[in-house]
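Protein Entry — a single chain follows
Next Lines — sequence and tokenised fold
***
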Amino acid sequence: MSAMDLNTPIYKLSDKDVMTLDDCTCGTVIFGATGSGKSSGSGRLIAKSYLRKGMGGLVLTAKNDEKETWIKYAQETGRIDDLVIFGPKDFQFNPLNYEMERAEEGAGESGNIVAMCLTIMKMNGRVGATQNQGSSQDPFWDYAQERLLKAAIDLIKLSGNKLTMANIVRIVSDAPIEPEILADNSNRRYTYIEKFSILIQSEDHEHKNLLDEWCEKNFTVSCLAYAHFNAKTPMEERIYDTAKSYFLSEFSRLGQKTRTGITEQLYAFVNPFRSGLLAECFTEGTSPDVLPEETFTRKIILLDFPVKKYLNVGIIAQALYKYIWQQAVERRDLNRYPMPVFLFADEAQLFCNQQDMMFQETARSSKACTVLLTQNLSNFYAAIGGRDPRDYVHSLLGNLNTKIFHANTDPITNEFAASIIGQTFQSKDSFNYSPGSAGGSFSEQKHFQVEPLEFTTMKRGGSQNDFKVEGIVVSAGTTFSNKKNYLKTTFNQNI
């Protein structure tokens, strides 16, 4: 597959203004009120332009009709055979298996799997009843979840058991919580970890029978026993010792309320993957796999879990796949897969997390073209939540170089747009009159090049405006044909 130069024209804003692949890899965000034409205007233009250029990509869906929209786009651009619709009963994707078995370096690393789980856990907390918890909670809980997941995943892997969501729950729920047990008929008391060490190392027949009895009744102890015998290298022995210490000593010493808080947060994350839609599509099953790497060879994967239909589960499903797709894009071999790829998300505020900010920082070098659409800036603030989401939101938007503003009545967005475009010195004449005297003056004052008010009056398309949508485009480092740093243009809804 041939490479595409960064100077390759991708789409036109006017007869004289062309956006190149270089512009597209620097990211695009589109703002516009409901009915402003952001999806059917600039969004449509960019989407179909990417398809015509042969690019593969990932499409997230919020509205129920987005699948039909993209089927139409694919048909109109000759790409219908490249469109893969990933929805219930069609395909599956097991993220744990994928991370364990993918070909690239880093596969099977517990830290990567833990990071994935924590990211989705925060998304789950954000879209649930405790919407603001993910951004404002005490960092202790994040660290506690990380330690718990790391110990569980390491122990399952080293024991030779299959890494599944169900096994993660089993190993946590079976973790001994009694700090001490009576070792024999004497008055001496042993900690659980001391007793386990005696049994695992003993050649005594009675001790072996007791260990077998423990293993049969307790999945955690069984994993520890198998991991003990499987640990052959110094690194594996360190992993085993750390997991053993955690589950047989440290976990039991936590206060009951603290331990319950940690485990309940984990169960809230894992349980949706044990039944229902997430279990059907994101655990091991009989349907064929749809892998992120397919987009490197022209495939367009559309995640048919629209939020309007599947609500929170739809958000979690798509955020999970997007997270893993972004990582796959960042590590791909551009010599082998040189074609650019795209990420397209309408109602983007529903799917964003901190991974998007980090991904966008290096998207250009990965030849990844991000397109995010939303009504207004306030949507991002509300969706991210927390005490002050502005730093994260503005960091993300700062890494999306091209910004397109359509008609809007949100004052925060309109003032943001005006400030992005900036101010210039403008000449102002004034005339004073009073009985017996009159005079005039001339001065230069700083004013917005585009006043916030102007964004409330732009044309929204439709038959009343000949299906022409107005928009104002700003792109960092670009001077347009009008000799300005912004361009007011129209987008045809019929093209």
User: Anything to note?
Assistant: The longest strand covers residues 423-434. Confidence is low (pLDDT under 50) at residues 128-136. Residues 9-91+292-492 form a domain with the Rossmann fold fold (CATH 3.40.50.300). The radius of gyration is 28 Å.
